[in-house]
Amino acid sequence: MMFRADVITLFPELFPGPLGASIIGRAMNNGLWSLNATQLRDYAHDKYKKVDDTPAGGGPGLVLKPDILARAIDDVSPPDDPRPRLLMSPRGKPLTQNYARELSKGPGAVIICGRFEGIDQRVIDQRNLIEISVGDYVLCGGEVAAMTLLEATTRLLPGVMGSNQSEMDESFENGLLEYPQYTRPAEFEGQSIPSVVTGGDHKKLGEWRQEQSKKLTQDRRPDLWNKFKSED
Ligand code: SAH
Fold first, then answer.
1. Does residue 150 contact residue 113 with C-beta atoms inside 8 Å?
2. Residue 20's domain spans which residues?
3. Considering the domain boundaries, does residue 36 fall inside one?
């Protein structure tokens, strides 16, 4: 079963962008996942191809019209489509490694990119859109957020990454941030690699890495650290 991603956007030309590069780009070429970007404006019904209008009740900016977005969603994703319908939104549930992993086990996703002030609430309600946020800041549109979600998800698809171990060791996978990494040369600007890393004692190295992970998490992310301790 192939992971199928559909993106509804006013800027389909931005895709695949970074999703076409490196391991996930190769995975797409090899048929492990597919990406289809749909131009929302194609579903406008007036001759000006109008997709937005002024906010009801007043206020700045423009709001994407619900009827046009609903037509695009229904065309790309009929009612029996098993894929979740996601709306990129700063009000959404925060994107996490766990959520990306959950999505990667499913049939794909239909992703709606907002623009302007956002989209009419009624289409969110009527099409059961799940709002997903990539962080507590505001972007101009949902496209970069959609790429972030798809990049985090598709790299976890079976067969995309070389080694499962590199995946399981990563930040967030065990509730901690990753330990420091080193490679050649043995000495860089007078600083050498910690001897425990090059010493060849795998048990000791494992302990050191776990210790470093804990220390980094405690220092930088008290939120993750408290969660880790409470689950330990
Ligand atoms: N007025 C809205 C922000 C609109 S930004 C508000 O205050 O909530 C325009 C579009 O960019 C949004 O509809 C959404 O699709 C996208 N976007 C902006 N910030 C985002 C974020 N942090 N996560 C996901 N999508 C975001």
1. no
2. 3-154
3. yes
Structure tokens that stand for 26 in this block:
């190769």
CA of 141 to the centre of ligand 1 (A): 6
Is there a domain that residue 38 lies in? yes
What is the mean pLDDT for each group of 10 consecutive residues in the chain (232 residues)?
A: 97 98 98 98 96 97 98 97 98 98 98 97 98 98 98 97 74 94 98 98 98 98 97 82
- Residue with the smallest CA separation from ligand 1 atom 1 is 117
In angstroms, the CA 55 to CA 53 distance is: 6
Q: Which two tokens stand for residue 2?
A: 């192939």
Residue 35 per-residue DSSP state:
E
Helix (H) or strand (E) holding 188: strand 187-188
DSSP designation for 18: G
Retrieve residue 206's tokens.
């494992």
How far is Cα of residue 171 from the mean position of the Cα atoms in its chain? Answer: 15
Does the CB atom of residue 93 touch ligand 1 within 6 A?
no
Rounded to two decimals, the pTM is 0.96
In the chain, the number of structural domains is: 2
